[in-house]
Amino acid sequence: MIEFNSTIEAFLHWEKETPKNTFLIQNFEGHQHVFSYYEAGREVRKMASYLLQLKLPEKSHVALLSKNCSHWILAELAISMAGYISIPIYPTLGARGVNQILTHSEAKAIIIGKLDNFKSQKNGIPNIHMISVKIFGEQVGRSWEEIIEKEAELLDFSMPKVNQLQTIIYTSGTTGKPKGVMHTFGNFSISAKTLGGLSKLPLYPKFFSYLPLAHVAERCAYNLILFQGGQLIFAHSLDSFSKNLMAVQPDLFFAVPRIWGKFQEKILETIPYKNLTLLLLSIPILNTIVKKKIKKKLGLSKARFIASGAAPISSDLVKWYSKIGITIQQIYGMTEDCCISHSNTQGQSKNGTVGKSLEGVTTKRSEGGEILIHNSCLFKGYYKAPDITATVFDEDCYFKTGDIGDYDDEGYLTITGRIKDQFKTDKGKYISPSPIELKISKNTDIEQICLVGFGLPQPMALVTISILGKAKTKVELSESLQQSIEEVNASLKKYEQIEKIVVMMDEWNTTNGFTTPSLKIKRHSLEKVFQSSYYKWYASEQRVVFEA
């Protein structure tokens, strides 16, 4: 893999060397909009020229509010080419969240792309320069299309330095207000190089981008693909997701545990578990045929590296996928370390762990078991928060991850919990919910799970139900969940054992504020709303309680 000092340097290289190669594919309903590297470069230069004409102060912050789409990439490159700093905003945030980030970052302009409900976000934008992409339906400020039509290309600009600030990524805020994580061009360059060695992708790889580009993981994946002159393909909508992914058959695929659970549901809806097991285990010829068909149907027939991250994934789910010929490598990283921390790889993989530390990474554990990490692409601090920044580094400049974990004799790391997620029962015992949640998630009737129990004699599990679970009667579902309680409790210490499972009426999502944009459950938000009902549910005579 060719080494580049910055994202923009990589793009300019491939624009020159492979101008006709496809760079971006935007799916619409019934058609596609394809950008070659040459065509993308033309639009990037024109938009960069326009941004400079706004006469913003040097190194101004320019926000980017959009779902994943071709124009997100074009906008981010244009911001860098103009010498400005990008401020990506999660497209699911409401007006308040948008305003919070725009105000805190002191953004001077904003580019508005593909959104589901801009009307609910518009009031959060202060009086700053606005650019909107008309083809996605938004028309505020200047039109992207009009600028591209009228503006001349920027021909003279300075290549960014490795230590120059490229972006401020606001964390999704599972426990509090988002913090602005500052990353340089050099950080992403190191990240791309390291991930390139890990994934072993071919030249000109394909990547299906659907997890939020405002999140560091998808941002790093995009950089990796660009550094190798590859293609980025975007889905039209959630409804077309499966169809678009199957058509792409990407070389790299990354998903969070909830997505892997959804894929499993989709497979089991088509082929019941018993039939699938029979096909895979009993008839060798069918075994190969069925596996190939499943992988192609999912869109993973050509994927060289398939990964799961952002949250722990059940070992049972990983085993289940391995039986159908899909090897999921669990990886571990954070916004602050630019995704360069630990990973399982082909030939060096152990289910239930997040793998070994990556090249250039050194780690240590605190007395309390917290994982501390150091690499060459650690963030430069939280924007306008030097006091908070100082608290997350130790005296040797190691970053305090907030995660508790153990290393085995071979160097594989198992994350056993998160310091902020621990709670204490009324017996004075501390519970780390994550390992217990993973045990319960083996039940395919469960969609989401959150273990709670602060101040209770024993923990309770709040769950939402999967499509498979919803197809069952209330009695069948209760029996299934009660069986899970018994099986899981047999492996737990007495004070950890689950007393109740509470079936919640509605799923947890970004709309009701119970998940982050990367689909992590916001434990503290759930507790804020439902904690007043804990004692009532706990007092129920039933082991499985349905939210009234």
Explain this structure to me?
- It is a single chain.
- With about 550 residues, the protein is an alpha/beta fold.
- Helices cover about 35% and strands about 20% of the residues.
- The chain is built from 19 helices and 26 strands.
- Strands 4-3-5-6-7 form a five-stranded parallel sheet, sandwiched between helices. It has a five-stranded mixed sheet with strand order 12-13-14-15-16. It has a four-stranded mixed sheet with strand order 2-1-11-10, with helices on both faces.
- Helix 2 crosses helix 3 (about 70-80), helix 7 (about 185-200) crosses helix 8 and helix 11 (about 275-280) crosses helix 12.
- It is globular and about 70 Å long.
- The termini are far apart.
Mean pLDDT: 90
**Quantity of strands, as a count:** 26
User: Do you know the CATH architecture of the largest domain?
Assistant: 3-Layer(aba) Sandwich
What do we call the CATH topology of the largest domain? Answer: Rossmann fold
Describe the structure using short key phrases:
548 residues; alpha/beta; Rossmann fold; GMP Synthetase, Chain A, domain 3; 3 domains; 5-stranded parallel beta sheet; 5-stranded mixed beta sheet
Secondary structure layout plus pairing:
Layout: H1 7-17, E1 22-27, E2 32-36, H2 37-53, E3 61-65, H3 70-81, E4 85-89, H4 95-105, E5 109-112, H5 119-122, E6 129-132, E7 142-143, H6 144-150, E8 165-170, E9 180-184, H7 185-199, E10 206-209, H8 216-227, E11 231-234, H9 241-248, E12 252-255, H10 257-270, H11 273-282, H12 284-298, E13 305-308, H13 315-323, E14 329-332, E15 342-343, E16 356-357, E17 362-365, E18 370-374, H14 386-391, E19 399-407, E20 413-418, E21 423-424, E22 430-431, H15 433-440, E23 446-452, E24 460-465, H16 467-470, H17 474-489, E25 500-503, H18 523-530, H19 534-538, E26 544-546
Parallel strand pairs: 1-11, 3-4, 3-5, 5-6, 6-7, 10-11, 12-13, 13-14, 24-25, 25-26
Antiparallel strand pairs: 1-2, 8-9, 14-15, 15-16, 17-18, 18-19, 19-20, 21-22, 23-24
Helix pairs in contact: 1-2, 2-3, 7-8, 11-12
